Amino acid sequence: MILIFTMFMFSLTMSISPGPVNMVIVSSAASHGVRRTLPFVSGATIGFTLLLIFIGFGFYTVIDKHPLFLKYLNITGSAFIIYIGYKIASSQPELTLNKVDIPSFTHGFLLQWLNPKAWIACASGIALFSEPSTQTTLITFIMIYFLVCYFSLTAWAILGDKVSILLNSPQRIRIFNFLMGGTLIITACYLLYSQ
Prior knowledge:
Elements: H1 2-16, H2 20-32, H3 34-65, H4 68-89, H5 105-113, H6 116-129, H7 136-163, H8 170-194
């Protein structure tokens, strides 16, 4: 029971803490609402879970033997996150329901695979919650993480939707977009600096 609680707390801490995916969710939900943001949330959750499975069932040994892999991933992922931040910061100051502007399932999925925070969370979780003698512990961890991740990202979408009440003028929307995009860019720069 203690192990399951520890898995839950690790998953919650990593999922609910601010990061690139969460900032995109807040921005999307503020502009388009929770319902239109849920495909991105689903893509991000499934993308993360498949990344966790990919690393947990074999790729962790590659990461362990080739530590430069995470460094190059960090550079590539941070560049992608900076691009997403720029797109948000420079978006039009209006709450539109333009289909082109809505982050999709695919965007959420890909952002997780290019997100250095996601790779670090997966590698750390695998190191903590896998046992060479059995796969049961790892499978339990993956199932818990999937549920916690989905609910945490949905909570960020609800927060973003509530923030939209304050966005009742083009100037406020412009400031919000700039803050969300700027936060993503700063996060990406911090990820680059911390490596």
